Amino acid sequence: MKVLGVAVSSGVLHFGALEAPQGAVAPAVMVGAPARLVPAAGLAGAERLADTFDRITQDLRILAPDAVVLVGTRKHGNWTYKEATERISLISALMLSCAQQNVAYEELKTERIGKLVGLPPASLGTFSHETIGLTQRPPYWTAGRGVAFAAALAYVTDGSEN
């Protein structure tokens, strides 16, 4: 099973891709998977959304995940219009791309992720890269990529319990 964890932070999609072959002891990081997707700065509105959708779709075609799992936000109020619009646009492009590529899509709340990886939900930012077998912390780990990997691990862990 290939799972792509996605965390949206500061207008960027952070990716954590894991592969969990059947019978394997622990999931492994997918080699060559992108770390993040930053929307094009030179585009706005519909053109920016279309470009983001196309780029997500390209990444999904290359990675060929069985599932994409989004980290649900912990912020439930005091959104600026710009923040909310950016997040909604990124998530909408991701969801549409998953639907087009026939990839299962699910959003996991931080409470569920925390329970499955053994961390309090508010402490997911401290998720250790060593938990997934990495000896060095990858780029963008604290910006959102670590939480994306935690979501992917939670999804794999939850699936193995069923």
TrEMBL record:
Domain of life: Bacteria
Protein name: Uncharacterized protein
The organism of origin for this protein: Streptomyces incanus
